[in-house]
Amino acid sequence: MNHIRNFCIIAHIDHGKSTLADRFLEITGAVDTRRMHEQYLDQLELERERGITIKMAPVRMRYELGKEQYELNLIDTPGHSDFSYEVSRALAAVEGGILLVDATQGIQAQTLANLHSARKAGLTIVGAVNKIDVLEGNGDVEGLDRVRREVAELLNVRKEEVFMISAKTGKGVRELLEAVVRRVPPPKEIGKEESKRKETSTRALIFDSFYDDHKGVIASVRVFEGSIRSTDTITLAASGASSKIKEIGYFAPTLTPTETLGEGEIGYVATGIKDIALVKIGDTVLSSKFKIQNPRSLALHGYQEPQPVVFVSFYPENNDDFDLLKRSFDKLRLNDSSLNIEPDQNEVLGRGFKVGFLGHLHFEITAERLKREFKVGTVSTFPSVLYKVKTKKEWQTIVKPEELPAEYEEIMEPMVTIVILTSPDFLNNIYPLQKRFRFMESTTETFHNQTEIKAKMPLAELVSDFDDQLKSATAGYASFSYELADYRKANIERVDVAVAGELIPGLSRFFPKETVQYEARQLVERLKKTLPQQQFAQPIQARVGAKIIAREDIPAMRKELGNFGKNGGDRTRKMKLWQKQKKGKERLKARAHVRIPPHLFKELLKK
């Protein structure tokens, strides 16, 4: 194990993690030059298109240093705060990490958040400043030195210990890789007392998984104790499921079979399990010569179920695609265990699923993957959060506004602690956002030539268009990270929408009381532009309880009755026909049922 180094790359989004991983692959010869391409470890088309890492990617590399051969296991991690659960699983599988900072942007919010998580996991951190070729090309030597000094202060090390690299050109990358070998400790052996257990001789952490039609669920694992052999029968600690292994191996970065995965190594286990719900990321793989009586008691520390914070209901555009949508979600959940999926029903859209996400970007990525990878068209509702409602008898949790009880005493909404890093030049632009997005307990301080704004805000505001508004206010230079805080009493109203006197399920919204009039007005105006005319008039009403707070009308279609005067007719005849038509429209309206087609419903649900 002295020749094994397990490490990951952590950074703010778009600071060059995947490009640095490319250079490591080239230096170690892990990938043939002919097959090499940019963002090699980002296997999803969506990742390369957006230029961000969505899924963590492990790879084993061989590197010789000082006549010694080392096994380097790298895990490339996502940078966006929505995927912090994904990062936490990677941190649990390694002993060290490279903290990468973009020289042109400096320390960002997610840089601090990821560093805090890495320190909490006990990792050895190696600091590096990336994209130095950009500032060197501009002759900004002072800027480079400033960023290097800031990273050194952040890590509490000497400035000379922070590496200056260009992942694009390869400058300084080999020196950084050699520093990882020297500084990151090898895997630790399990304590002597723990190793005396007779129930199990092997424990490995599942930090990722994916599905293969022939091999079943393939789990990405880090072996912490003992070794896994290709002939073993394994048991999963959380689910208690047992199975004979189909294949084991390591990522090179393609799946490369082997006979044994030893203690401290990272690789994969083809479990042969076909039920994807039985294999959970964060679970422990157990292997033993003896029957394991209580698998849960042997689980490795740190396993936690991910907590969804944003809820969106998905319905197939074509009702016949319900089973396809179900299978698609099942496969997505296999390598994204943070998805929380429950059956749902809507009067307009039919059967679907209520899905919990870790954030708004997580929702967007999943919706795009459904469309691209599984070719299933969907209609999704407005993103919502989990509210707590107090009635006379008990506390309830609700996601949809329609679930709000008729009588209740108070509503509690989830809060987040948000940290914004920005240049002091943009402070005046950010202050108006604090009122619009209901900031509370806001504090401001200077941090490494940047201004740090720390505050609490409702999660519902964060998942609306906060990200876009912040980027617009700061010309794209501000960054933020957040974490769930607590629940507080909410001052909100439920707004229902009725068309021609009929409530439309799925269009109800929660709005803050201070802006409910404005939001309701915007909603009915948008409905008027979207809904088609009918043979009868359609009043569109936004209601709070029995009170109508906003209204628009879609007039009935009129049939032209001709120019009676030009053709010698009498106007009274035209008036009689109009009256007759009017009575017909009133009878039609009394019997009419407003039906919003799924494609129009999808337009209404767009931001």
Descriptive keywords:
single chain; Elongation Factor Tu (Ef-tu), domain 3; 31 strands; eight-stranded antiparallel beta sheet; 607 residues; Alpha-Beta Plaits; six-stranded mixed beta sheet; Rossmann fold; alpha+beta; 5 domains
Shape: globular
Strand segment tally: 31
Separation of termini? 53 Å
- Would you identify the regions where 5 or more consecutive residues have pLDDT less than 50? none
**CA-based gyration radius:** 29 Å
Characterization of the model:
The protein is an alpha+beta fold. It has five domains: 180 residues, 3-Layer(aba) Sandwich (Rossmann fold), CATH 3.40.50; 102 residues, Translation factors (Elongation Factor Tu (Ef-tu), domain 3), CATH 2.40.30; 74 residues, 2-Layer Sandwich (Alpha-Beta Plaits), CATH 3.30.70.870; 95 residues, Alpha-Beta Plaits (2-Layer Sandwich), CATH 3.30.70.240; 112 residues, Alpha-Beta Plaits, CATH 3.30.70.2570. The chain is 27% helix and 32% strand. The protein is built from 15 helices and 31 strands. Strands 11-10-16-7-8-15-12-13 form an eight-stranded antiparallel beta sheet. β10 and β11 form a beta hairpin. The protein is globular and about 105 Å long. The mean pLDDT is 82.
What's the SSE blueprint?
Blueprint: E1 4-11, H1 17-28, H2 45-50, E2 57-65, E3 68-76, H3 84-91, E4 96-102, H4 109-120, E5 124-130, H5 132-138, H6 141-155, E6 163-164, H7 173-183, E7 202-212, E8 216-225, E9 228-229, E10 233-236, E11 242-244, E12 247-251, E13 255-258, E14 260-261, E15 266-270, E16 284-287, E17 310-316, H8 322-334, E18 340-346, E19 350-357, H9 360-373, E20 378-380, E21 387-390, E22 395-398, E23 410-422, H10 427-436, E24 440-447, E25 450-458, H11 459-462, H12 466-473, E26 479-489, E27 492-499, E28 502-503, E29 509-512, H13 516-530, E30 538-544, E31 547-554, H14 571-591, H15 598-604
Parallel strand pairs: 1-3, 1-4, 4-5, 5-6
Antiparallel strand pairs: 2-3, 7-8, 7-16, 8-15, 9-14, 10-11, 10-16, 12-13, 12-15, 17-19, 17-20, 18-19, 21-22, 21-23, 23-25, 23-26, 24-25, 27-28, 27-29, 27-30, 30-31
